Amino acid sequence: LVLSPPVARRLLERPTLLILDEPTNHLDAVTIQWLESFLKTYPHSILVVSHDRYFLDEIVEKVLFLDSGKLQTYRGNYSQFREQLKEEEEALKKAYMKQQAYIKKEKDLIDNAKETEKAQRFAKSREKRLQQIEIVKRPRRQEQMHFQFPFSSRSGNIVVKAEELAFSYAAEKPLIRSTDFLINYGDKVALVGPNGSGKTTLLRLILGELKPNDGYMRLGASVDLRYFPQTRSFYSETNTVLQEVLDHKHMTLGEARDHLALFLFKDDAVFKQVKDLSGGEKSRLVLAKLALSEGNFFIFDEPTNHLDIDSLETLEEALLDFQGTVLFVSHDRYFVSKLAKKILHLEDGNLTYYPFGYQQYVRERDRERNISSQQNKEIDLHLKTNKMKRERPRKIVKKKEELLKYIGELEEEKEDIEVSFTKGEVAFDWEKLSKMQKRIKSIDDELITLYEAWLELEEGEE
Fold first, then answer.
1. Distance of alpha carbon 329 from alpha carbon 303, whole angstroms
2. Distance CA 419, CA 413 (A)
3. How would you write 99-134 as a 3-class SS string?
4. In angstroms, how far apart are the furthest CA atoms of the chain?
5. How far is CA 109 from CA 106, 117, 124, 355, in A?
6. Contact at 8 Å (CB) between 304 and 131?
7. 275 partner at 20 to 30 Å CA-CA among 217, 284, 331, 449?
8. pLDDT tens-digit readout, 63-110
9. Which long-range contacts (CB under 8 A, 24 or more apart) does 390-398 make?
10. Cβ-count burial of 242 within 10 angstroms (0-12 exposed, 13-18 middle, 19+ buried)?
């Protein structure tokens, strides 16, 4: 069984082996969290192929690593697998270097053996031992990007300051309501929120490409800003990779080629035209240009798009090592979790600041949602019971009958939904499946409120 998002195939049939191929592709954060919760309690075996590192950390207990036709098994989640793999690679490198040193030493002794019969016999014995040892293979060198973002100089303590900032496009609802926020020097800040919430618009306000409708935003003293856009832009689509870099900064051909090699553009790859590059290659080329410009405040809009895992990890390390300030938008939760020390959440025009990293942000958001839900239920119950208490006693009986009828209808609707779970067509529709789960939860919450309201009426009648 293969599950290819966005269509879920017979999840509720609960097969003994569920195979998922890139299940988080094209899913929003809410649906991914729902899928994670579902899979954590799945009673049978799951085999998943995914580049979503955070998802793998949440779900898997074992990793099968396929490399050069060889399959190896590692216990633990993705992060634990990477640590084990790193330790193995270091151990293999040390073993290889140690053995090569031993072989060289033995060969030198053999080659320099004296001409005496005893020395020659001993040399032949050494040579025979060398032929019998099991050779440690040379560690395969995995090509990765190697770079750092150049730091210009320290800015002032205030990097970005906004007060009563508000923005909307003409005749549209506000994307950003009156809000204040502050980004200080050295902060690593993630800007998160649903698709279409206005994250890129906020970045454009900081960049000065848009003007606020109200309030103001300003950059602090000595801020030297560099920007990595979501839409990769180039001087010319017909430029070669080499010419694109030379157009960005004056340097010799040798310097340009050496720099591009750090981003895996080597040999004839530097002569590929921009229009022929893959998405990952275009991202690496934009990073190569960005790494030629000194700055102390870097803004990234979805920098992880199209990058492979090795490139992502190199980018993470480069940003963690950067001395200045970083503000970025990303849907890669692993990237956000590793890099961000503070979070700005934009949703429904409201910008909320969280002075901590991603894990604590997730816990805080869950806590806020639970509090809000409980408060809404308490307010609703209070209004209903107060209204019922004010009604004349002769209406209480009628109200009880109406409540019982409505309770019966909700219980019947819930039963119908639960029965439909067993029907095959439901499992083909992610969105419908999620809506049904949410509807059951909504019915349960409403029934609790109605039961309590009915009991209030019962007590009032007494």
1. 8
2. 10
3. HHHHHHHHHHHHHCCCCCHHHHHHHHHHHHHHHHCC
4. 124
5. 5, 15, 11, 64
6. no
7. 331
8. 999 887 889 999 999 999 999 998 988 898 899 899 899 888 888 888
9. 393/460, 393/461, 396/457, 396/460, 396/461, 397/461
10. middle
192 bridge partner residues? 345
In one-letter notation, the amino acid at residue 318 is A
Least confident range from 52-66, 288-302, 376-390, 441-455: namely: 376-390
- Which of 24, 366, 356 lies closest to 190, judged by CA? 356
Give a three-class secondary structure readout of 3-62.
ECCCCCCCHHHCCCEEEEECCCCCCCHHHHHHHHHHHHCCCCEEEEECCCHHHHHHHCCE
* Pair of tokens at residue 424: 């095959």
418 contacts: CB under 8 Å, gap ≥ 6: 440
pTM check: above 0.70: no
Cα dihedral sign, 108-114-120-125 = negative
Q: What is d(CA 273, CA 138) in angstroms, rounded to the nearest whole number?
A: 35
Report CA 335 to chain centroid distance, whole Å: 5
Nearest to 302 by CA among 393, 201, 229, 363: 229
Rounded to whole angstroms, the Cα distance separating 8 from 430 reads 5
In angstroms, the CA 370 to CA 363 distance is 11
Q: CB neighbours of 438 closer than 8 A, spacing ≥ 6?
A: none
Q: Among all chains, which residue has been given the structure tokens 């030297």?
A: 224
Tokens 């039961």 sit at which residue? 451
Secondary structure (DSSP) of 144-171:
-----PPB-----SEEEEEEEEEE--TT
